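Rather than argue in generalities, we reproduce a single protein record, letters for residues, whole numbers for local backbone shapes, just as it appears below:
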Amino acid sequence: MQNKPIPYGRQNITEEDIQAVVETLKSDYLTQGPKIIEFEKAFAEYSGSKYAVAVANGTAALHLCALTLGVKEGSKVITTPITFAASANCVRYCGGEVVFADIHPETYLLDINSVKKLLEDAPKGTYSGIIPVDFAGRAVNLEEFKELAKEYDLWIIEDACHAPGGFFNDSNEQRQFCGNGNFADLAIFSFHPVKHIASGEGGMITTNDKDLYKKLLQLRTHGIVKDDNLYKNSIDFAVGSTDQSSGAKTYPGWYMEMQELGYNYRITDFQAALGTSQLKRAEEGLERRREIAQNYYREFQNKPFVKGQSGLFEGHAYHLYIIEVEDRLGLYNFLREQGIFAQIHYIPCHLMPYYRDLGWKEDDLPKAENYYRHCISLPMYPTLSPEDQDMVISKIKEYYSE
């Protein structure tokens, strides 16, 4: 085993990042301060959306989206089985039912034809929404999904955790960046350390809908409202004052109302400061990820032991670079012996014991299950050195005796 382990992903923290956090720690605000608003504005601009709401993590972002769109008992929502479990679990948190549709075997994304079949085979009104995932960094064609959503009166949550800066080209050959709000009602991102932008933990929701934006802000903080125009209790109850000449009512400064059952899903100011600093290097990191992808693609193209790979596609954000191989377990163990910690993304959600207990079983989604038998995610992060990538490539070739 070599001395320096090579993980599948890792954060890149610079002195500028550290200074941004230190300055915030020395400021008057550790939470609910100006750095959160600064991060939200910067991320909205980056994604091309009108509004952005920073939250505790990507899972919290998904949960708030589901709550805001009214998921409840009886709601049926379609998503992909090849994703982190939170993409599906957010529906269950609200009491809804998750229905998995199969993936496209070449893109690894939710297959629109599989979704269409579910919709066509059920009475209109059966389903409430769709949660497509920009898996591995490849952007879902949301224009196509939006047309389908309109036909069946569905909302869309775009899970873009893997794809900040990613895009697809629409029917007019215009770039549509992940999370820009042009097709999805809401989109979510994660700032976990292995993601493009790291803030330790943290997440972001983007939208172009002002009403959804306001609802998200309320649910993010316990369902609490601090707005004189929205209060439901009387001015007398609040022990406020009424101007005798104008009749204007003024609630006291301390007053607030919890009007809904919300959550404490806030991010901290020092996390937001780190995220803002990282965001400044987002394009630089994306460019490097695409260089790494080019190297992998070139080295594994037409190799007999590679049954499929992420490939080279315009707009791909390359959170992951995946190859499909025979004897995946053997390769996985061999690479670990060499200090190369490749990973598997993902065990199909519908075959997790929790979802099996809800009735899902093997062979329900054959394309997703076949993908899982062969997939392996190779090291992919901006600070991966050319030498380390060469090591990864050479060891894979060595294993297959090329």
The CA atoms of residues 77 and 225 lie 29 Å apart. The chain has a mean pLDDT of 97. Residues 282-399 form a domain with the Aspartate Aminotransferase, domain 1 fold (CATH 3.90.1150.10).
